[in-house]
């Protein structure tokens, strides 16, 4: 059965140097602009709110303490003012929104992906399972609880951030849950053209292997922002290139020209009939799988730092979950 969902992959620049809410306001305005174009699903870049920690890529650890602390102050609490703003914009426009944020949970920051349904409800909050290279100085590790696909007004959606796409078992965990649409997020404005080239290969391969649509968003830095972040002309180069905002069909085809420079959005209509067309030929978690030979073990329990023993006749309150405070 054919079903059409209009998707938008968003490539915009963050708002730097404000109270941390400027980028969130820009997200909400972009949601409204995209909704006017008939968009049902929109994807924003990795840790876009308040901004990706580009400073950590070009500074040694002993120099970035002040900027790391500043990111703590501007990071997103879930739920909180930022998620309330975005949820309301999603609800008002009736759109599904996938947003990357720096989440603060007490003393740790996380690279977090949030999926808002068209009602404004948060369907999924997941944390990047392994921060990459320089990112390990910034974020903590996520857990398997977020490796799941959710039903939304736009279809069954899964999400991974950046180099999580180089973890084949993480991708397979989502594939086994039958993604209709895979939402990918990368920082953009990083590493150079080779990053964009690698990104294209990765995204198109996942679309083919999983038989789903892939909507990918990368961020963009203006020349002024590059100069402000680097503080040194010799360090500006690593903050250019690496943008590949695109939408891919289950057959691995780019559904619109990708965006590799500047702000904008890539919009395409996703015809779900193409999912069945692809999977009739190759369903990697169905008729093309060999579970008696190869299978995946996944632990989907949230990570906890404390486990309470129980007395036979005594009920003990569960351990605090993230962002809960003891009475």
From TrEMBL:
GO MF entries: nitrilase activity
Domain CN hydrolase: 5-272
Transmembrane regions: none
PROSITE patterns referenced in this protein's UniProt entry, alphabetically: CN_HYDROLASE, NITRIL_CHT_2, PIPLC_X_DOMAIN
Classification lineage: Bacteria, Pseudomonadati, Pseudomonadota, Alphaproteobacteria, Acetobacterales
Family of the protein in this entry: Belongs to the carbon-nitrogen hydrolase superfamily. Nitrilase family.
Pfam families documented for this protein: CN_hydrolase
Name the UniProt record assigns to this protein: Aliphatic nitrilase
Domain of life: Bacteria
Signal peptide from the UniProt entry: none
InterPro entries linked to this entry: C-N_Hydrolase, C-N_Hydrolase_sf, Nitrilase, Nitrilase/CN_hydratase_CS, Nitrilases_CHs
């Amino acid at each position: 059965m054919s079903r059409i969902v209009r998707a938008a992959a968003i490539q915009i620049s963050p708002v730097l140097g404000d109270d941390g809410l400027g980028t969130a306001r820009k997200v909400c305005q972009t949601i409204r602009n995209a909704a006017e174009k008939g968009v049902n699903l929109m994807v924003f870049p990795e840790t876009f709110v308040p901004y990706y920690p580009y400073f950590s890529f070009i500074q040694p650890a002993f120099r970035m303490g002040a900027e790391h602390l500043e990111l703590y102050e501007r990071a997103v609490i879930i739920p909180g003012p930022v998620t309330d703003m975005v949820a309301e914009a999603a609800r008002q426009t009736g759109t599904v929104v996938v947003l990357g944020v720096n989440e603060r949970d007490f003393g740790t920051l996380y690279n977090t992906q949030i999926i808002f349904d068209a009602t404004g409800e948060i369907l999924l909050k997941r944390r990047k399972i392994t921060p990459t290279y320089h990112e390990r100085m910034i974020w903590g590790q996520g857990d398997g609880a977020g490796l799941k696909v959710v039903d939304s007004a736009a279809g069954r959606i899964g999400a991974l951030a950046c180099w999580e796409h180089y973890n084949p078992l993480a991708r397979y965990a989502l594939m086994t849950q039958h993604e209709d649409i895979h939402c990918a997020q990368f920082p953009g404005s990083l590493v150079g053209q080779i990053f964009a080239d690698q990104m294209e290969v990765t995204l198109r391969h996942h679309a083919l292997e999983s038989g789903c649509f892939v909507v990918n968003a990368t961020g963009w830095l203006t020349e002024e922002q590059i100069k402000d972040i680097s503080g040194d002309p010799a360090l500006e180069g690593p903050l250019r290139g690496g943008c590949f905002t695109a939408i891919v069909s289950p057959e691995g085809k780019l559904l619109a020209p990708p965006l590799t420079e500047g702000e904008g959005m890539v919009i395409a209509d996703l015809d779900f009939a193409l999912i069945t067309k692809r999977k009739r030929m190759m369903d990697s978690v169905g008729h093309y799988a060999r579970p008696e030979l190869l299978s995946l073990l996944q632990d989907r329990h949230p990570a906890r730092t404390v486990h309470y023993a129980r007395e036979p006749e005594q009920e003990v309150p569960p351990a605090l979950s993230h962002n809960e405070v003891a009475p």
